[in-house]
């Protein structure tokens, strides 16, 4: 599933996006460095915290949780960005955080947001054919003392893309990708606190357009066509979530498993997408946090282009142009150190490594794909612990700039 939101989050195909950091807790999403929608680690609050400096008994001051508010909070976050895939662009993200039931003292704040994106890839004298636009709406709702979690996404994506043959560092031709996505996910807590099971239902429509028949044939080889293709998307979900704060975790784990796919004739496939995050408070509070993530996406069957794993998308190792490293399967590991420097400002540094491959027996010979990155963060809302993040990353695609709302994972 190319991540629709991820592509809007980072702007590329949308199955992953809708299922991942956009509409699905921690499932790799498509990411073209212009991420902009909080992932589950970023868009689910359990314990609201605001930045209030309080002295600690020993050592530096910690950022103490402020009194929780149940009043709606609104913000608009504009984010200029540049990345090799889309070029120069602007994200505008209006977001509303609220509590559907103010009598509920357990559920995290719900969120509703829009993501509007426009970009042009240089050279600008040919801007008319090299522009990208995307619009998406996302909501994540928490009900009944956090026994129910509901996520929905609708997105339209029209992107300028470049085709990279297997193993090539330079694109062989340009093409346009257009997608429509609508996906809903419902989780229900069962058996014990923090354990959820659920279902995913939705549909994805897409097509690609290239300049000549030879290029169209190359795209057809990875499951695409100039004709619109629509496919239903169904899946099963599970999650175990013990994080102390869904927006800015300092301790706990978040494990997600998504199994979804399509039963459409000539496009029958299944995706298996596990993810495991863990968080550690290094100074006994939220001043300094170490986090790591194991991620994977494994496709089986007749995968369309929208279902390919794209390395570099949100929730995976940063520093890679979306579409340059893509295949039926992907796996990797990443880690970040997060430091709240002063009041609402913070710094983060991370590194990761992984691989993309077609079959499991090809994993050993596949190239390792390392990446490193550094971020500056700013807490957008004083009474909500959610942050805007500007990141510079370096990988085999070179230097990339990201702007996002929420953590990478």
Account of the 3D structure:
There is one protein chain. By secondary structure, the chain is mainly beta. It has one domain: Porin (Beta Barrel), CATH 2.40.160. The chain is about 5% helix and about 55% strand. It has a 16-stranded antiparallel beta sheet with strand order 3-4-5-6-7-8-9-10-11-12-13-16-17-18-19-20. Strands 1-2 form a two-stranded antiparallel ribbon. A two-stranded antiparallel ribbon has the order 14-15. A hairpin with a 6-residue loop joins strand 12 and strand 13. The N terminus is likely disordered.
Largest sheet: 16 strands, antiparallel
Can you count the helices? 3
CATH H-tier superfamily: membrane protein fhac: a member of the omp85/tpsb transporter family
User: Structurally, how many domains make up the residues?
Assistant: 1
Low-confidence stretches: 1-66
Radius of gyration: 20 Å
Gross CATH architecture: Beta Barrel
End-to-end CA span: 18 Å
Beta-strand percentage?
over 45%
Determine the mean pLDDT. Answer: 79
CATH topology descriptor: Porin
CATH class category name: Mainly Beta
- Topology as a string of helices (H) and strands (E): HHEEEEEEEEEHEEEEEEEEEEE
Characterize the overall form. globular
Helical content stands at under 10%
Spatial sequence of strands, sheet with the most strands: 3-4-5-6-7-8-9-10-11-12-13-16-17-18-19-20
